[in-house]
Amino acid sequence: MEETTTTTIVMAALSTLTPPQITTLTTTISALFRHHHRHLSSLLSSHTLFSLSLHHLHSLSLEQKSLLIARHLLSILSQLSHLLQPTTARMPPCIATILNDRDLDSVLLLLLLCEQHQHEPESLKTLSPTDWRDSLSDYVATTMLTLSGIGFSRSEILMKYIEVVAKCKKFVDVMGSRDGKDGKEVAASVVAVVALPSVQVKQGGKECAVCKEEMRQGRDVCELPCEHQFHWMCVLPWVIKRNTCPCCRHRLPTDDVYGEIERQWELLVKINGTYA
């Protein structure tokens, strides 16, 4: 049920894009999938690299694996949410969207193991971990086009994108609920706060929603992307603790991975006029 809802929301969001935006997204996604496929190919062709990545995976707790998948989801989801935001409302990207090579290898291996287990449940059970590389290599060889996006049409690339988002989000939602991460307050990203504009109050009489005092005409104040304005000294302590507007709860980017996923997902839901 959750995966169906996720798929519906992403498809509805895609339907709001213009043809040039669709072209940009499919080009970006196709390049991203090719990059992932090259990493997988290197991983599966090197016994040493495979062993190191597998050992790293085994050393991670379930919560750490969940965080790894969440960061992977965020890096993929950001491609779409970036296009859906008006140019004037775009904020600097969350630093959590950047995966180093070791983390990318680990999450791609983890997702590949999950995928093969889903399609061939007995294939890995009967083998020792030292033989998993050959089994995974055979599996990838038979699904190369699916994993790389090579030779796929625009619609097929987008469907693959939706599939990856849905699978990762389902896992992240389950782990997030289990660990009590839903709805927690998170600080706004420092980069996003620094990028907030300072504007002059054009007309007196408005009050700052934080201190309830008037913002005098001609005074420099902070304006959030939702266009609500506040005294700088009032809003800064606020965004250090939470990434929401004091008036409308519009979310600023955050460096908390789960909080940023929630922010970007709310954007998709809001644009579609649907509710998760």
Automatic annotation (TrEMBL):
Gene3D superfamilies: Zinc/RING finger domain, C3HC4 (zinc finger) (3.30.40.10). Keywords: Metal-binding, Zinc, Zinc-finger. GO terms for molecular function: ubiquitin protein ligase activity; zinc ion binding. Residues 208-249 form the RING-type domain. Coiled coil: none annotated. GO terms for biological process: ubiquitin-dependent protein catabolic process. It holds the Pfam family zf-RING_2. This is RING-type domain-containing protein.
